[in-house]
Amino acid sequence: MNYHAESELPLAVLPASHVVSHVLLPDASGTMQKRFHATSRLDAAFQACVEYVQRLQDDAPDSQVAIISYSNDACRLLEWTRVSSLSDLTTHQNEWLAQACEHGLGRTNIADALLEAAEMLDAGKGAAQVVLLTDGHHNIGCDPRPVAKRLKARATIATVGIGDDPQEVQEHLLKQLASRGDDGAPLYRWIDDRGRLIAHFSSLAGRLTRS
Q1: Residue 57 maps to which CATH number?
Q2: Considering its fold, how many domains does the chain have in total?
Q3: Is residue 199 part of a domain?
């Protein structure tokens, strides 16, 4: 399913003044180097992450954000940081992309990404949102479903699949990992367009959510 409009997201809205913790989990496996229109999937993923942060800066500058890329295992690219303190996001984007490439470009360990997010959120308070992006199948590490179940007790999980064909990702698994919206549907989107990907991340950031 392609993303078309912000209204498609059936999420509960919190006041913008409510401090929310956000963890972004971009896939940095080898297949993320494939083309995604005019750029690579990995480039598009980090452009979307920057758009997410920019939306938070506008709507909820007291929020905190962390970014964890993952391939064979997880790598913390950004420890907890108040979004209002992040300037020159283009430079940050290039740094995060370089670190993700240096650490990743292997297989796809979704479970380790979720475990790292859970560890970062365990000591925190307040509402939290985790956004996981992938272009492939979970193919190394433990079963991510028990990890997601644990994480959902602390945060909303939104999952995003990207690529040329929905069969490239495990949509059934990504729907299981995702939290459910007010309408009972999983907070999962398949997206095959860079512009819609960026718009979707902006929409997710603009809707301060929890399960």
Answers
A1: 3.40.50.410
A2: 1
A3: yes
* pLDDT of res. 210: 37
Range of the domain at 30: 20-206
**CA 151, CA 10: separation in Å to the nearest integer?**
20
The DSSP-derived string for 8-71 is G---PPPPTTS--EEEEEEB-SGGGGSEETTEEHHHHHHHHHHHHHHHHHHH-TT-EEEEEEES
Q: How many Cβ atoms from other residues are within 10 Å of residue 9's Cβ?
A: 18
* pLDDT tens profile 47-96: 999 999 999 999 999 999 999 999 999 999 999 999 999 999 999 999 99
What is the DSSP code string of 108-147? --HHHHHHHHHHHHHT--S-EEEEEEESS---SSS-HHHH
